[in-house]
């Protein structure tokens, strides 16, 4: 396998698709955490007005969606696009992924800062070629952190596995994994697309919680 411009363009395309999908996952978590704050602040009111069932329904739906989304980016099936699939591809080509190749894709602009060198150095020990062990460490950390979530989805959500499942996944586990993915995808997006990100969280420009402060007109 040879690392060339065609392979690199494929990675860029993948990175953009991964960004869009994980941005939705991160955004849904933002909304769920906001909803949770509303519920916790109004729990007694919710119980008095028979709203517990609805709140647990939202909680369950979010949990399933989040776990499935996480699992989607843990899988490295060759027929799918995922964050770990992209990172695994980079690891395979690491010894060909040189700094010279990188600046051939993103030439240095002498009128601007040399961001290429600083970005590349996050993935290389010597600044000359991508270090496979750095990439492999990112793969292992994400795989280890998401192992229980992946197993839960495979054996409980996607299938009713005859072996059953005696593990445990909490909402805190989902939150931690999504935060890890957010950090990881931003790191690799900067390398692959030359676009700097610190988070995929969005700044919501309107008060979406307002719906919980006014009564619904159920006659409509």
Structural account:
By secondary structure, the chain is mainly α. The protein has one domain. 63% of the residues lie in helices and 0% in strands. The chain contains 8 helices and no strands. The longest helix has 37 residues. The model has no long low-confidence stretch (mean pLDDT 95).
In terms of DSSP E residues, the strand content is: under 5%
Largest sheet: none
Q: How would you spell out the order of helices and strands?
A: HHHHHHHH
Q: How many domains comprise the coordinates?
A: 1
Q: Distance between the terminal alpha carbons, to the nearest Å?
A: 61 Å
**Helix amount:** 55-70%
Radius of gyration: 21 Å
| Overall 3D shape | globular
Number of helices: 8
Low-confidence stretches: none
Q: Structural class, please?
A: mainly alpha
How many extended strands? 0
What oligomeric state do the depicted chains represent?
single chain
Mean of all residue-level pLDDT scores: 95
């Amino acid at each position: 396998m040879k690392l060339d411009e065609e392979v690199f363009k494929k990675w860029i395309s993948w990175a953009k698709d991964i960004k869009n999908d994980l941005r939705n996952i991160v955004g849904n978590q933002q909304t769920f955490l906001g909803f949770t704050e509303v519920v916790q602040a109004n729990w007694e009111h919710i119980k008095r007005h028979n709203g517990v069932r609805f709140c647990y329904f939202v909680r369950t739906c979010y949990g399933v969606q989040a776990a499935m989304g996480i699992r989607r980016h843990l899988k490295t099936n060759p027929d799918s696009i995922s964050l770990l699939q992209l990172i695994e591809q980079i690891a395979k080509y690491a010894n060909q992924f040189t700094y010279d190749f990188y600046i051939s894709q993103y030439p240095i602009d002498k009128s601007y800062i040399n961001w290429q060198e600083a970005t590349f150095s996050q993935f290389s020990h010597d600044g000359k070629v991508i270090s496979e062990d750095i990439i492999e460490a990112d793969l292992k950390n994400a795989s280890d952190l998401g192992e229980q979530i992946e197993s839960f989805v495979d054996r409980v959500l996607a299938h009713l596995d005859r072996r059953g499942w005696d593990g445990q996944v909490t909402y805190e586990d989902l939150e931690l994994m999504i935060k890890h993915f957010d950090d990881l995808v931003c790191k690799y997006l900067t390398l692959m697309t030359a676009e700097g990100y610190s988070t995929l969280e969005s700044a919501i420009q309107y008060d979406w919680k307002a719906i919980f402060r006014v009564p619904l007109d159920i006659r409509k």
